[in-house]
Specification:
The chain is an alpha+beta fold. The chain has five helices and twelve strands. Strands 8-10-9-11-12 form a five-stranded mixed sheet, with helices on both faces. Strands 3-4-5 form a three-stranded antiparallel sheet. Strands 1-2 form a two-stranded antiparallel ribbon. A hairpin with a 3-residue loop joins strand 3 (about 20) and strand 4.
Length: about 180
């Protein structure tokens, strides 16, 4: 899907140009192009474009994390489970799992959010969470790691892992 408006291709995988900031996810309106913020605390709510009032869909692509501060704000305040893919560009299995994560994100339908942490760029996050091998997937709920797994796997296995993690941690999920 290279060339799709509002996206960028990395390793032949289309990722949303949505970006994180300290308060939410910034995404362009597909109708008018205006930048809109999905507040972390309200990711599970319907959002309309501030300019044209068109309903906006929740991000349906993995989002690249650009700073540790934005990562911390997201996992601390997200009203949805956050699936984190710890990866690096030189990692073959990471490149194999990337298109599988795109499939999972597209099917998430606002149930959870997928973000990508490049451990070469944000090494402090890899150290803080004890990432010893990549790819590693972690599910954050209520600011805490609810589940974690390492290694490449197909989309169906990733989705099952996330759903199991989310259903096993209802107390943390309802804390926000």
């Amino acid at each position: 899907m290279p060339g799709r408006s509002g996206s960028v291709s990395v390793y032949n995988v289309t990722m949303a140009t949505g970006t994180l900031d300290d308060r939410g996810i910034i995404v362009p309106c597909a109708h008018c192009g205006r930048q809109n913020r999905f507040a972390y605390e309200h990711l599970d709510h319907a959002v309309r474009c501030a300019a044209c009032k068109t309903p906006l869909a929740a991000p349906a692509d993995p989002i690249e994390v650009d700073s540790s501060a934005h990562f911390d704000a997201l996992v601390a305040h997200s009203s949805l489970p956050v699936v984190v893919d710890y990866w690096a560009p030189w990692c073959g299995p990471c490149r194999m799992v990337a298109p599988e994560l795109v499939k999972v994100a597209a099917r998430a339908n606002g149930r959870f959010l997928i973000v990508k942490v490049n451990t070469d760029v944000l090494a402090d996050l890899g150290e803080r969470f004890g990432i010893r091998s990549i790819p590693t997937l972690a599910v954050f709920i209520g600011g805490r790691v609810a589940a974690r797994t390492a290694g490449a796997r197909p989309a169906a296995d990733i989705e099952a892992f996330v759903i199991q993690a989310a259903s096993a941690a209802p107390a943390e999920k309802s804390a926000h």
